[in-house]
Amino acid sequence: MSDVLAERCAALAQPVVDLMAAAIECQTGNPETFDRVIALAGQVRAVAEQGAEGISQPDYSAWATGAPAVLTAMERAAERRDSKGVWTAFADPQVGLHRVGTACQGYPRW
Asked: Quick check: 49 and 69 in contact, CB under 8 A?
């Protein structure tokens, strides 16, 4: 039997780290960084959209449910070159990326 949460955390580790770096870097207004935010948000969304079936970790379940909408908000903000909007979505208190970090704590690369 596979550990679904371990698989999801492994798939998310690098894209989440890269998205965090891009979200911070886009605060400088560098246009190339906004494009990275868009691409990375798509990678993270692809994992989130797999849902939380088979995962009993409540932070992951909550994150996976709300992540597609917050990642879309992040992409839209990046398309507008709105650094504040990117950060607001990234740091969303309910389904921001910190929530998946809490869920994946203790797994490799987390």
From this structure: no
Q: What is the value of pTM for the model shown?
A: 0.91
* Cβ atoms within 10 Å, residue 23: 25
Ramachandran bin of 3, using left for φ above 0, alpha for ψ from -120 to 50, beta for the remaining angles: beta
> Is 55's pLDDT higher than 60?
yes
Neighbours of 68 (CB within 10 A): 16
Q: Which two tokens stand for residue 73?
A: 């908000």
Q: Which amino acid is it at 56?
A: S
For the chain, domain boundaries = 4-104
Q: Which residues contact 27 (CB under 8 A, 6 or more apart)?
A: 83, 86, 87
Report whether 82 contacts 12 (CB < 8 A). no
